């Protein structure tokens, strides 16, 4: 009886060991599948998920996932191809629109030199205004398609402080025309980042242009020691919904009638392509747009 009991115990121990080993191998196979699956999603590759386990169920699971990955790669390629075709079409259309719009503007200039009744001159003014908006939209469409389909940017070490200062100086006339005296706080020492200077200038310029369109007469610009740049202004014509959609393509609020709705979309696209973040928030009547590029900042501040 005792011998039989020992035999049963040994058999049970053996079964437990076998099950533990098999469970360990299945866990290892699951980890291999999980790791390989994450890698395949992050990279464009035709390689398949392979596992060391000989378990038929785990190998069948890996095979099924490979089938779905192949289908996903096919959908991704179709999407990328269609997106590229769309961008090329927008580029071509916006380019083709430039010639007739230029001719229209030329004829409008000639017509404005003629002696016209007051009613006709008022209509002419409206036509000129709408034509200018069409020119801006066409130009922004062209720029957006060029930016979104452009190859890799050309990053180099640059000083964010200097880029921001130069951008603000370039808008001096526009700010003066709106009677806006900006309050500016920028670090005294350099804030170095490895970015594309042209792209950074475009980002800052588009944000300042947006502030000029929607500001109720003020503008605050500050840069933190960590390189975080905040543009804020009073925006009486904005609400929380509008502020949340400012980065949507072609979205404009009622007060921005001369806006194409692409400036901030381009700013977001360029910011994200360089690994940064951009966001908008509305607290009360005050709109703030925050741009941040990761990196190590420098200490010290100066007020302008």
Please describe what this structure looks like.
The structure is a single chain. The model is unreliable at 253-260 and 296-304 (pLDDT under 50). With 304 residues, the protein is of the alpha+beta class. It has helices at residues 2-42, 56-112, 118-149, 160-170, 172-177, 197-214, 240-244, 263-273, and strands at residues 156-159, 183-186, 192-195, 220-223, 229-234, 277-283, 286-292, 302-303. The strands form two sheets. It has a six-stranded mixed beta sheet with strand order 6-7-5-4-2-8. Strands 1-3 form a two-stranded antiparallel sheet. The chain contains eight helices and eight strands. Helix 1 (2-42) packs parallel to helix 2 and helix 6 (197-214) packs antiparallel against helix 8. The protein is elongated.
């Amino acid at each position: 009886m005792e011998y039989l009991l020992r035999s049963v115990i040994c058999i049970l121990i053996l079964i437990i060991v076998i099950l533990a080993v098999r469970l360990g191998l299945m866990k290892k196979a699951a980890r291999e599948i999980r790791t390989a699956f994450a890698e395949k999603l992050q990279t464009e590759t035709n390689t398949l998920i392979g596992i060391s386990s000989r378990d038929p169920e785990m190998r069948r699971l890996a095979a099924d996932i490979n089938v779905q990955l192949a289908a996903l790669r096919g959908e991704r390629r179709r999407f990328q191809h269609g997106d590229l075709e769309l961008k090329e079409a927008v580029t071509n259309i916006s380019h083709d629109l430039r010639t007739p719009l230029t001719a229209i503007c030329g004829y409008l200039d000639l017509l404005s030199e003629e002696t016209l009744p007051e009613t006709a001159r008022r209509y002419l003014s409206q036509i000129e205004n709408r034509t200018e908006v069409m020119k801006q939209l066409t130009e922004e469409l062209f720029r957006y398609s060029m930016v979104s389909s452009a190859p890799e940017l050309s990053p180099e070490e640059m000083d964010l402080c200097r880029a921001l200062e130069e951008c603000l100086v370039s808008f001096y006339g526009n700010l003066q025309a709106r009677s806006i005296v900006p309050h500016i706080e920028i670090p005294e020492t350099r804030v170095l980042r490895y970015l594309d200077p042209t792209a950074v200038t475009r980002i800052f310029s588009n944000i300042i242009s947006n502030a000029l369109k929607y500001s109720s007469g003020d503008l605050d610009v500050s840069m933190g020691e960590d390189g975080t740049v905040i543009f804020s202004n009073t925006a009486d014509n904005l609400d929380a919904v509008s502020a949340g959609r400012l980065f949507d393509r072609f979205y404009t609020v009622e007060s921005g009638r001369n806006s194409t709705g692409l400036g901030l979309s381009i700013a977001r696209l360029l910011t994200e392509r360089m690994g940064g973040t951009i966001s908008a928030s509305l607290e009360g009547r005050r709109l703030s747009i925050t741009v941040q590029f990761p990196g190590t900042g420098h200490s010290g501040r100066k007020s302008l």
